[in-house]
Structures are given as C-alpha cells and as structure tokens.
Amino acid sequence: xxxxxxxPQRTCIGCRTVRPKRDLVRIVRTPQGVIQLDVTGKQSxxxxxxxxxxxxxxxxxxxxxxxxxxxxxxxxxxxxxLRGEVAKLQ
Length: 90
Prior knowledge:
The structure is a single chain. It contains three helices and five strands; from the N terminus they run βββββααα. By secondary structure, the chain is an alpha+beta fold. It has one domain (9-89): YlxR-like (Hypothetical Cytosolic Protein, Chain: A, 2-Layer Sandwich), CATH 3.30.1230. The strands form two sheets. It has a three-stranded antiparallel β-sheet. Strands 1-2 form a two-stranded antiparallel ribbon.
C-alpha cells in the first residue's frame, strides 16, 4: 500500500486563504532585485503567493501587501506589468 503524497499548502497574501501551492501564482524578487512572475515556482529569490483573481491582486497592491511580503518597494510600471501577466493566467 502506497502512502498518499502530501500536497504543499500556501497562503494567498491578498485574501489570506490557504490553498494548494499549484492553485496559486508565485511572484518573486530575484537576487538582482527584479520583480516578476514565477511560473515554475522554483526561481531563487524572495517569493509571495497570490490567487490568480483580480480581487486578490488589487487587494495586495492597494494595501501594499506584496511590497511587505517581498521586502521592497514596487514602482507603478512593475505593478501594471504584473497585473497584465496575472490577468493572462485567469
């Protein structure tokens, strides 16, 4: 009899719900300081998980939750780029 594999859980920074890692999108601040979407979930750097829904993304930007999670300030241009990239995933 095989053991069932444990599904990794992560918390969305927007709505604070715990969901399987695969259901969330990872945004990462690379060691070079670039903020980008991490589709593989394996890029090195400081990461934060968020639901791929518009409401969660807007909440994270409005309350500066993403900036707190990534421990850096994010400019407007980067915010717009991330909004567009996550919108494509929906």
